[in-house]
Structures are given as C-alpha cells and as structure tokens.
Amino acid sequence: MEHGNHTEVTEFLLLGLSETREVQLFLFVLFLLFYIIILPANVLIILSIWGDPHLGSPMYFFLANLAFLDICYCFVIPLKVLSHFLSHHKTISYRGCLAQLFFLHLLGGAEINLLMGMAFDRYVAICQPLRYTTVVSRGVCWALVGAAWAVGFMHSFIQVIPIVRLPFCGPNELDSFFCDITQVIKLACTDVYVLEFFMFFNSGLVTMLCFILLLISYGALLVWLWAGGSSKGMSKAASTCITHIIIIIIMFGPATYIYCRPFRSFPLDKVVAVFHTVVFPLLNPIIYTLRNKEIISAMKRLLGRYGLWRGK
C-alpha cells in the first residue's frame, strides 16, 4: 500500500534463529519438547493448588497465578516460532507484530508486579506472622493480582502506542524470531533516539530497579531468618526465599541484558532471547515443585485420584 512516496510496511520478515534446514528441524523438536512440558506442568500446578485444601495459603495462590502467566506466555511466542520452523516464508503481519509485542510486555509487566506481590507476602509471613492472615487476606491477594495485571497493561500500552505512531516505509527484516521493541523501532523511517531513551527508561531502568529491590528485600529476609535461629519453620521460610531469589535471577537476568542497554544487535541476543521467552517459563514449575514438598504431595494426590500415580 502506497503512503506518500514510500510503500507502507504491512508485514515483517523474521530472519529467525538459523537459515540451515537441519538446524531448524532440530530447534523445532527442541522447542516442541519445551512446549509439551510447559503446558502440562503449569496446568498441573494450578489444578493441584486449587484442588487441595492444604495449599490454601496466599503463597500458593500467587504461585498458581504465576503458573497461569507462564501458560499465557506459551501462546504469545512459542506457537508462532514452531510454525515458522516449518515454513520457508517466515513473516508476521504488522498488526500481528504489534499484538505479539503488546502481550509480551503485558505478561512480562504483570509477572514482575506479581513477584513484587509475592515478596510482600513473604515479608508479612516472616516478619509479622501474627498479623499475616489479617494483612494478607484473600481480598488483598486478589487486589495484588489485579494490580499486577493492571500495571502490566499500562506498561504494555505505553510501549505500543508510540510504535503505532511510527512510520514504517522501507526495511521490514527483523533479525529475530519474534517481535520486540528493540528490533521494531530500528526499522522506523524517522529518528527514534528520543523514543529509544523513553523505552530504555520504561523497560530497562524500571526492570533493573525492581530487580534490585527484590534482591534487597529477600536478602534482608534471609539475614533476618538466619539471625533468628535455625528452627524448622525458619529453615522452611529460608528455603522459600531462596527459591524466589532463583526465579527472580532467572527472570530478570535476561530481561536486564535485553532492555538495560542501547537497542543495538549483539552476538548473544538470540541466545538470551530464547532463554527469556521459551526456556524461562519451563523453569518456574520445575524449580518450585522440586523445592516444595507440599506441591509435590498435592500433585501425587491429584494424579492418584485419576489413577495416574500409584506411588506412596
């Protein structure tokens, strides 16, 4: 479609991860394996938590919502990537690109804020246990989850609106396997220096600030726990904090690399992007289930109810 003296871009060409057919088929099988594992694992976590009265605490409520976010992630990027591995013409429409970008940052923003809510839950549970049921009530839990989604929506909306207003009239090749702001805005037919700075602040610095705050909060909780003794309850709380720290590092590490720097191409970009968009959602259920005996027991009871588990 013509727009002035230029052709308006209606689709973007994704260069993908490799041009070699054998490598693409190998990655297809690998990504499909991840996808097959992610969905059942997260669905099992949600069903186990919601169906087991022993897992009625706010911590498990937040974990079920975290698993739901990871399920949503599966439908934003991995499905499209799988179809591209089997296609010779790897394109995504302009509107499809914007939609992918919007939901990617919506879910990412919601997950960051949900992790902040989980940190608040752990603080109250450890430092003010007598007030825990009053402060972190079911209404407060729903409010924190709703706020996480609302903030994620606002963050994503702020990201997408400036890109919608950009003119795309020439190059349409994205050196990636999905749409993200770091790649898309470089194709605009205008100076995007100010916009890059704005995106860097909105995604990069905010992500870094949340990362630092979460590490400080959990670090302070661990120091407080270790200073308070080594009782069974304290050890369990410390183990939970360590699990949350692992999740935070895994999530924020790649995000910090991607957004806390100038929007330029670097050799490790695609590797980090794969880890951030495909591998990371798989790690949530694995880390939480392996380090939490209550969830494992609930899963066994749920599977045993349907004859899928016969162990003790």
TrEMBL record:
Transmembrane residues, as ranges? Answer: 25-47, 59-79, 99-120, 140-158, 205-225, 237-259, 271-290
Q: Does the keyword Membrane apply?
A: yes
Q: Which SUPFAM superfamilies match?
A: Family A G protein-coupled receptor-like (SSF81321)
Descriptive protein name: Olfactory receptor
Q: Chief location of this protein?
A: membrane
- Transmembrane helix as UniProt keyword: yes
Top-level division of the source organism's lineage:
Eukaryota
Under PANTHER family, the record lists: OLFACTORY RECEPTOR (PTHR48002)
Q: Which family does it belong to?
A: Belongs to the G-protein coupled receptor 1 family.
What are the GO MF terms of this UniProt record? G protein-coupled receptor activity; olfactory receptor activity
Q: Which organism is it from?
A: Chrysemys picta bellii
According to its record, what are the GO cellular component terms?
plasma membrane
